[in-house]
Amino acid sequence: MFKKASACVLLAVASVSHAFPDRVITIQVPFSPGTTTDVNAREFAQVLSGIVKQPVVVDNKVGAEGQIGAMAVLNAAADGHTVMFTSNSLTVLDPLMKKSQPYDALKDFVPICAFASTSNVMNVTGSSQFKTTADVVSAAKAQPGKITFGYASAAQRLAGELFQQAAGVKLTAVPYRSSVTALTEVAGGQVDLIFIDHVSAMSYYQGGKIRPLTVAGAQRYKAIADVPAASEAGVPGYNIHPWFGFYASAKTPPAILAQMREAFGRAVSSPATAGNMDKRDLQVLPLCGDAQAKHLAEDVKLTRKVLSKAGIEPQ
Questions:
Q1: Backbone angles phi, psi at 286, to 5 degrees
Q2: Which of 20, 83, 202, 275 sits at 20 to 30 Å (Cα–Cα) from 258?
């Protein structure tokens, strides 16, 4: 009897371990089409599909600063076929900056693999009177609160707050439902600034509708090589580098998670992904499972300190 039961358990485990993937994998992107999160997800989907030999599609569910897309993953079957691809805005910043959410991002999701890190850039309307970072700082000091910046995620808001702290100025934050809407409003002059990565803003740069003034951190990006780094522009404290990763429901069986991490890890570390990242100045971040969890925990710890120093309370 015991042997029969054991055999049944082994067969069940074996069947589960070979169950992923057996159909289409859906990557939920909780941000707008055209953003860097979306662009990266679509390119990665092609790479992953070639590895797992199943179709991989991207679905954008936008709204509530990413919460709608996140809930779509939690409401789907926890079998590995629906995953979330997001920046650390949802997994690090939201849990620290929001008093209430329909889920616990640090408990209801588990890491599959990290993917890459990117830039954050302070941008102005193409026709803006501000030509340099010094112009923005000078005007903001002269009229505290008059200059506005749009944001559609916690990461964008944090970047704006960090800039204010670094420059010693006061700006007015304006929330938007999506990054595309925020970018459109900046392009149209309805708001003055937006702090976002250069990939998401590139089409606006090319059309002259938005101009990049400063890249966060100490290094320039080759795609916008004429734009000075924050350390050059006199605001070294403006230093933030969003990163992206894949997450599954915490209810996903361990055997399935192991297979997901193996497949996603191969795709993240592939030459195709490296080439895609290089052309956009993104840094590949090939961390899976425990390594990604450790990176996530360290980011939460660091961000908590930054928010405390900036005086940002959960809202």
A1: -80, 70
A2: 275
Written as six digits, the tokens of 195 are 């702090």
CA-to-CA dists, residue 189 to 49, 102, 149, 156, 214, angstroms? 41, 34, 11, 18, 19
**C-alpha to C-alpha distance for 30 and 32, rounded to whole angstroms:** 7
Q: CB atoms < 10 A from the CB of 202, how many?
A: 18
Note whether 214 and 233 are within 8 A (CB).
yes
Beta bridge partners of 283: 117
pTM above 0.85, yes or no: no
Locate the domains of the chain by residue range. 2-116+243-310, 121-224
Contact 205, 220 (CB under 8 A): no
Domain 2-116+243-310 and domain 121-224, same fold? Reply is yes
Architecture category of domain 2-116+243-310 in CATH: 3-Layer(aba) Sandwich (3.40)
Which residue has better confidence, 23 or 97? Answer: 23
Tell the CATH superfamily of the 121-224 domain: Periplasmic binding protein-like II (3.40.190.10)
Q: What is the structure's pLDDT at 18?
A: 53
Q: How far from 113 is each of 9, 186, 315, CA to CA, in Å?
A: 29, 33, 29
Residues 6+ positions from 263 with CB-CB distance below 8 Å = 20, 21, 48, 51, 52
Burial class (CB in 10 A: 0-12, 13-18, 19+), 132: middle
List Cα–Cα distances, 105 to 151, 228, 280, in angstroms. 21, 35, 28
Q: Compute the mean pLDDT over every residue in the chain, rounded to the nearest whole number.
A: 90
